[in-house]
């Protein structure tokens, strides 16, 4: 059974200033299996973040349904951890308190909160920064806090919305490697939104290529290249060429249509 | 061998610069006071109409410490009056602060609270608090209560407006993050919305404490028989302009101290913000 079942999702927005209906997503269906690492790859404005927000329960589809673990998604919940594009930490809480925020909401005592937060702080490599405030840390470190915060909830799935887009190239590579290592260790299901072909191919074991607006699934394929993946290897380049060809073909057809 | 002063003109500049940076803050007030003293003693105006700073200081000294009884009935009564005024400010400010934060959060957070409460409050807001004085006297008599009521009116609206603003401008993704972690509506309010609005709330409280002093003094001039504002108005009747100015200085001092207290509290509550500026300065 699919862990995440996306069934014929349509999302339309009303452009109030022009009085027009805009279709952001057009009949998107996708099955995501347990322990999959799925990358949603598409250009800006293709609705990939909207789709992720609907899995998270932040937005409602205009029609269609999304199920996670067999349950219809109606609102946000701790069974779906989200890592945002910006770290979106509580600036008034320390690293440890941010990571343990979910436990605080559940009324777990301070000692246990500390202990469980520590485990995930160590896991993302922030040992020693427990007492720091987000404003004292770099963007990459804050994004690690965001990941630790999502992992601590032990969610069925983790949804990531271009979490490394704002990081410098070197930090990005490090974070990608660590994310893969974490995923291999705890075998959670990850849906990762990105516009970077390289990033999708480094991370995912399944890749969904989306079209420009209105967003549709252009192709959805397995990518079983062994890890760690060498981005300069012929196998990687072959895959990249195939994906780029898909994207180019799609761009050409939409230009003709326009 | 050179002597130290020959060798290091730069060191002497540095010493002069250090001296200047210590004096920097006091130069302008000192010049104003000196000019005032000189003008007042020059006889351009009768000294009783514009008492020199030395006379004000003399009156203030006797008012505070009861030195020579030169302020007659008021000699040595400063603390009693200052305490009366401070109590009214404190009581009105606390009531206004709590209710302003509470109602402001409700209006900022809930559409229906906004629709039911905001129009009424926005109509009351432009009514100057001092115009409530007649009704305040009729309702509360001549004592602490009308003053506290006026202070409340003056401090409530700045707190309210800033709380509404703080709650409305909160980053929507913080709410999403909270909902993602399983927060209920009430938990979102307590753990995310109010903390996120605190910087704005404190900005409101600092405006509010200024209004609070303004209205305490006004109320004391009209409707109360104690406090620094009462002494100010009473001294005016007795042509003691040195006492009038001494009272003005006292109000300035008390207002400054209460603002300082709020700033201190803000530094503790918003210490997560302070780290931002410290790092920003270093980096």
UniProtKB/TrEMBL annotation, chain A:
Q: Which is one GO molecular function term here? A: ATP binding
Pfam families named among the record's database cross-references:
ABC_tran (PF00005)
Coiled-coil region? none
The segment(s) forming the ABC transporter domain are 4-237
Listed Gene3D superfamilies: P-loop containing nucleotide triphosphate hydrolases (3.40.50.300)
Protein family per UniProt: Belongs to the ABC transporter superfamily.
The name of this protein is Aliphatic sulfonates import ATP-binding protein SsuB
Q: Which gene encodes it?
A: ssuB_2
Automatic annotation (TrEMBL), chain B:
Keyword terms, alphabetized: Cell membrane, Membrane, Transmembrane, Transmembrane helix, Transport
Q: Which PROSITE patterns match?
A: ABC_TM1 (PS50928)
Q: Name one Pfam family in it.
A: BPD_transp_1
Q: How does it sit in the membrane?
A: Multi-pass membrane protein
- Entry annotated with the keyword Cell membrane: yes
Q: Which InterPro entries match?
A: MetI-like, MetI-like_sf
Record-annotated ABC transmembrane type-1 domain positions = 82-262
Q: Does the keyword Transport apply?
A: yes
Q: Where in the cell is it found?
A: Cell membrane
Membrane-crossing ranges are 89-111, 123-142, 148-167, 188-215, 235-257
Of which family is this protein a member? Belongs to the binding-protein-dependent transport system permease family.
Q: What is this protein called?
A: Aliphatic sulfonates transport permease protein SsuC
